[in-house]
């Protein structure tokens, strides 16, 4: 018998408990940098060296971070459910915790790509330097979806949401679109759960259990709710 499809949308709140800062906690500043100067397509065109420096620093932070109990709990749910994680996060903490199906909406910090061809993607060992080239001769840049850029994985994420038997949101404020709209693709009758230390606005959403706690605590509370659907 096939397992129930549990689709999970995760955001910065789950990685924050592993020590990775979120810019929305600090008035548009991300570890001292103005978002508009480092996380937009315009910023890359204007000052690519600054953008590289910022992501090189973040990459080091991700390598030092470790998965927390919430990441591990999601990975362990694969024992009982067919779990697909759709994450807004660019770190690899879900994978390191053991999750096997992870779709990164906003790219992956441990990968780089040609600035001219988004299909030329490579793993990153250390820092990306100005002058480092892809095989097409173009400058290598972080494999990140910046503000002002389309989100190519959104269509795959929407298909997953449409076919969910259960839908869980963990650690996201649901303010970054189009990811925030993913819940609207979930059929209205499907049970939905949200875990966040500050619950997002969800009043139009049907059939929802809301738990206002940080990801690590909230996951302990939500798992018994999920297990009620096991037959």
Description of the structure:
With 231 residues, the chain is of the alpha/beta class. It has two domains: 1-20 and 69-106 and 154-231, Rossmann fold (3-Layer(aba) Sandwich), CATH 3.40.50.1220; 22-64 and 110-144, SIR2/SIRT2 'Small Domain' (2-Layer Sandwich), CATH 3.30.1600. Helix content is 29%, strand content 21%. It has helices spanning 12-16, 35-38, 41-46, 48-64, 69-76, 93-97, 154-162, 215-227; strands spanning 5-10, 29-30, 33-34, 82-87, 102-104, 107-114, 121-123, 140-144, 166-170, 192-195, 208-211. The strands form three sheets. The chain has a six-stranded parallel sheet, sandwiched between helices. The radius of gyration is 18 Å and the shape is elongated.
Furnish the topology, listing elements before pairings.
Elements: E1 5-10, H1 12-16, E2 29-30, E3 33-34, H2 35-38, H3 41-46, H4 48-64, H5 69-76, E4 82-87, H6 93-97, E5 102-104, E6 107-114, E7 121-123, E8 140-144, H7 154-162, E9 166-170, E10 192-195, E11 208-211, H8 215-227
Parallel strand pairs: 1-4, 1-9, 4-5, 9-10, 10-11
Antiparallel strand pairs: 2-3, 6-7, 6-8
Short summary:
With 231 residues, this protein is of the alpha/beta class.
Strand content: 15-25%
| CATH T-level fold name of the largest domain | Rossmann fold
Name of the top-level CATH class of the largest domain: Alpha Beta
List the strand order in the largest sheet: 5-4-1-9-10-11
Shape: elongated
Instruction: Please name the CATH architecture of the largest domain.
Output: 3-Layer(aba) Sandwich
| Quaternary organisation | single chain
Strand elements, count:
11
Rounded average pLDDT: 91
Q: Count of helices? A: 8
Q: How many structural domains?
A: 2
